[in-house]
Write a structure and sequence with these properties.
By secondary structure, the chain is mainly alpha-helical. It has helices at residues 2-25, 34-37, 42-47, 51-94.
């Protein structure tokens, strides 16, 4: 696909240069303009009396080719960008590193101590005694402590 885009871009540039030259060579309507400066009057001798229609048709077709190539290259560029981004997403999913358990170098199979990234416990809070069930499960009546 990159080769086709490169080839079409080269053809587009050549067509643009050809279109510029066609516009410059055309006969002006009142014998003034850039066309006469670059030899616009020589087209009568080269192409004959009806040269205006030949140059007009060539300009029309060069313009159609230019616009068609420009739109095609724009569409292909968008498609190539989408394909590239979807491929990079797939590669990132495939190349995600697997989680491995680190070991101490030189001692295979022995794990290092776990790292503690948790914040330290605050000692400002009062300790709370654990709650015990003082009710009998069957009667919901208080149970006398055992001596």
């Amino acid at each position: 696909m990159n080769f086709a885009i490169g080839l079409m871009t080269a053809v587009l540039v050549l067509d643009a240069v050809f279109l510029i030259l066609l516009v410059l060579v055309q006969l002006p309507k009142k014998d003034a303009g850039v066309g006469s400066a670059f030899g616009g009057g020589a087209t009568d001798a080269l192409f004959g009396a009806g040269s205006g229609s030949v140059l007009t048709k060539a300009t029309k077709w060069a313009t159609i080719i230019f616009l068609g190539l420009a739109l095609t290259l724009s569409f292909l560029g968008v498609q190539a960008k989408r394909t590239k981004s979807s491929r990079s997403d797939e590669l990132q999913k495939k190349s995600a590193p697997a989680k491995t358990t680190p070991t101490i170098p030189g001692l295979p199979g022995i794990l290092p101590p776990p790292s503690t990234n948790a914040p330290a416990l605050s000692t400002n809070k009062p300790a709370v005694a654990p709650v015990t069930n003082t009710l009998s499960p069957s009667t919901n009546a208080p149970v006398a402590p055992k001596k």
